Amino acid sequence: MMNNTILKPVSIRRSTGERFFSIFNYLFFTLFTLICILPFYYLFINTISDNDLTRRGLITFIPRGIHLNNYVQVFKLRGLGQAAFVSVARTILGSALTVAGSAFVGYLVTKREMWGRSFWYRFIIVTMYFNAGIVPWYMNMVLLHLTNNFLAYIIPGIVAPFNIILVKTYVESIPSSLEESASIDGAGTLRVFVSIIWPLITPILATIAIFSAVGNWNAFTDTLFLMTREELFTLQFLLYRYLNEANYLASIMRSGTTTAVTAAQALSPRTIQMTISMVVVLPILLIYPFMQRFFVKGIMIGAVKG
């Protein structure tokens, strides 16, 4: 006869020390999360609150006199639409080419048959530690005719040493038998990379995409040094200029507002700075949660071996 006894799940009793450690972890990371969120929350509530109260520093945790006039006025700034388009185009194209370039070079340096593999890999890594400086970099960009050229935002970042290290480490964790079987079937290096390696390294590619997208979105110094044509200004550079001209902008915006705008909504340099900062930060805050699961899996590769 068969034994029909139902197996009950075994409950594991934790010691007092383990329970205390778990409670401490929950409290610590909850507090840490709140500390990370608080600056953004403080920035946001000050952009939608009574501007006079914001100017006097009276808005702390609860918004008062809520209105959206700050955002309405900031989005009316001259050239903001074109600058946003340049930043979005730079972020999308730059990130895509960085992912593709770094992935392929990272894969190549894992191939023993590559000519001068060790030399080229070390040559690339050295550039992480030694930098010629701004003046040689600027002279090089001028000689390459990359001033007042949109390609200046794209070409210099296509291959990044740190990204190559990430891809190389990830590729080395993939069983070599997969590549060998494809090579036996007649697949070349490029075919193996596109059909086999690329789909398997998606997590690390997503990690690189996040790094690159954040870097491209936040960059403004290359615009400062290389661009004089306003149609090539990025959103961050334009907002950087506006941050430095907050007092002037506040007086211009106040003089241009209609009588329907109350005194509580009258712009001040402080509210302009906070609103512009929120406009810059918000897109990345919205995109990052969707990429986080790839980011965690990709960045942890190589942490455990064996």
Write up what this structure looks like.
The chain has 306 residues and is mostly helical. It has 2 domains: 19-77 and 245-299, no CATH class; 80-231, MetI-like fold (Orthogonal Bundle). Helix content is 65%, strand content 0%. It contains 14 helices and no strands. It has helices at 16-47, 51-55, 69-74, 80-108, 117-126, 134-143, 161-172, 176-184, 189-200, 202-218, 221-226, 235-244, 246-256, 269-299. The longest helix has 32 residues, at 16-47. The radius of gyration is 26 Å and the shape is flat. Residues 258-264 and 302-306 have low confidence and may be disordered.
Task: Summarize it.
This protein is mainly alpha-helical and 306 residues long.
Q: What's the CATH architecture of the largest domain?
A: Orthogonal Bundle
Average pLDDT confidence is 80
Shape descriptor reads flat
N-end to C-end Cα span: 45 Å
Describe the protein's topology.
Blueprint: H1 16-47, H2 51-55, H3 69-74, H4 80-108, H5 117-126, H6 134-143, H7 161-172, H8 176-184, H9 189-200, H10 202-218, H11 221-226, H12 235-244, H13 246-256, H14 269-299
Characteristic terms for this protein:
14 helices; single chain; 306 residues; 2 domains; mainly alpha
